[in-house]
Amino acid sequence: MASSTAVEQPSVAGQYAPTERTVPTRARERASYDRESVHAILDAGYVCHLGFVRDGAPVVLPTLYGRIGERLYVHGSTGSRPLRAAGEAGDAGIAVCVTVTHVDGLVLARSAFHHSLNYRSVVVHGTARRVTDKAELTAALDALVDQVVPGRAADSRPASAKELAATAVLCLDLDEVSAKTRVGGPSDDAEDLALPYWSGVVPVTTTYGAPVPADDLAPGIPVPAYLTGLAGS
Amino acid sequence: MASSTAVEQPSVAGQYAPTERTVPTRARERASYDRESVHAILDAGYVCHLGFVRDGAPVVLPTLYGRIGERLYVHGSTGSRPLRAAGEAGDAGIAVCVTVTHVDGLVLARSAFHHSLNYRSVVVHGTARRVTDKAELTAALDALVDQVVPGRAADSRPASAKELAATAVLCLDLDEVSAKTRVGGPSDDAEDLALPYWSGVVPVTTTYGAPVPADDLAPGIPVPAYLTGLAGS
Questions:
Q1: What is the value of ipTM here, to two decimals?
Q2: Half-sphere exposure of residue B129, counting CA atoms within 13 Å on the CB side?
Q3: What is the CATH classification number for the domain harbouring B42?
Q4: Residue A92 falls within a domain, yes or no?
Q5: Minimal Cα–Cα distance from A35 to chain B, Å?
Q6: Do A112 and B197 count as a contact with CB atoms less than 8 A apart?
Q7: In this structure, is residue B222 part of a structural domain?
Q8: Which of A14, B8, B16, B86 could serve as a FRET partner for A25 with CA atoms 20 to 30 Å apart?
Q9: DSSP, res A6
Q10: Residue B115: which domain range?
Q11: Kind of pairing between the strands at B116-130 and B176-182
């Protein structure tokens, strides 16, 4: 896949180089190419929406991801079609778009038109390749598990050779990347401010409940500390 | 765009007809074509991930949607590129994939390999057209607002003609649709059950906080009942 043309200066320290397709056509003030911001948004989640093209049409599937440095690993369990395509493509890889979104608030303006959301999102464009190296696959699987629950990979049975062979993971370099963020209250037009409609923000958070043990959990195994921390967050 | 070939019998009452691309290659027992299930998953959310193809590559953007019957309306504020493309395509429309995902639980198995999520998702394939009819656009904007906060559209200033002209909405019929759901505890291999790792599910929910009034909210406007209900949910 031909990469897009950079529209601004090449990468500076701490920044991804913007390209024609990572510069939004609107609300540019919400866009960021800052590595730390991008990493923080990615690290706050574990579900991405993986987009690929099949028979000329777009397909978007939810799946798990993990980040190791400037590389994203995307799990293939929900999308063996793209994984199979990537496997067949070999080193050429397949064109993908991986998007991660967190909703932080419902923004209620006086006008229907100015309703919005507060959110943080990251969009990654690039070429994904199937991970075939056994050591990288092991690291990727650990990263996927630890992305969901930090500390969990070391506290579970590592994958067997047979399981690794059945684990389909795509890797994608963080190269053509942008973040988009909206924060703050509603942006009503001045002439609407006196209208008798409530206006403001409803905060939205993700909450983790008390861990529910498996029916067949052996007695005497306590809830691990890395989970009690989650439930308190 | 050529529609996919139906691989099973045509639509039966209450069911979407499965097609080659809505039948998953794996975990078929998690897939459903039941209209009520699909509607329930769509109605439980308001953020979708909109996929389209641009210069041969996939693009996935988060945006708002609303449902009216068997039609989905997708807001264009975060993606004026697909909206512009749809506008240029006119009645031909553009190929899209719209995916909605809710995470319900983190599934921790004894083995790293069997870690999973409990989730509900809907994937809609089809051809999206830009809404140009003024009455439909008005209804779509109301649906978008009410999808986020039911009851809010009637309690805000309706869009002006100028705002409607600036509102870019895509519509997409619910026709080629599937839902996918995972529920329940971990599925460990029998030989792993005695391993000393905690195993079970961490419930995940979306929580709405106490509404935060806009800095410039006129005094004396109470928090509407449709918001106090949200915060209690």
A1: 0.91
A2: 12
A3: 2.30.110.10
A4: yes
A5: 20
A6: no
A7: no
A8: A14
A9: B
A10: 28-207
A11: antiparallel
Single out the residue of B146, B142, B227, B150 nearest to residue A198, CA to CA: B227
User: Cα dist. B187→B2, B101, B109, B110 in Å?
Assistant: 39, 22, 7, 9
Q: Is residue B155 part of a domain?
A: yes
Helix or strand (DSSP H, E) at A140: helix A134-148
Look at residue B2 in the predicted model and tell me its pLDDT: 38
Q: Which of A117, A186, A61 is nearest to B65 (CA)?
A: A117
pLDDT tens per residue across span B9-31: 445 579 999 998 888 777 777 88
Quote the tokens at residue B130.
Answer: 């830009």
CA distance A30 to A10: 20
Is A49 a domain residue?
Answer: yes
Contact across the interface for A113 and B141, Cβ inside 8 Å: yes
* Encoded tokens for B17: 């007809």
Smallest CA–CA distance, residue A198 to chain B, in Å, is 6
Q: Which helix (H) or strand (E) holds B82?
A: helix B80-89
Most A CBs within 10 Å, among B74, B99, B157, to test the A interface: B157
Q: What is the pLDDT of residue A2?
A: 38
Number of domains observed in the structure of chain B: 1
Tokens of A94: 């397949």
Residues listed for chain A: 233
Q: In whole angstroms, what is the distance from residue A100 CA to residue A179 CA?
A: 9
Nearest-CA neighbor of A127 among A65, A160, A174, A166? Answer: A174
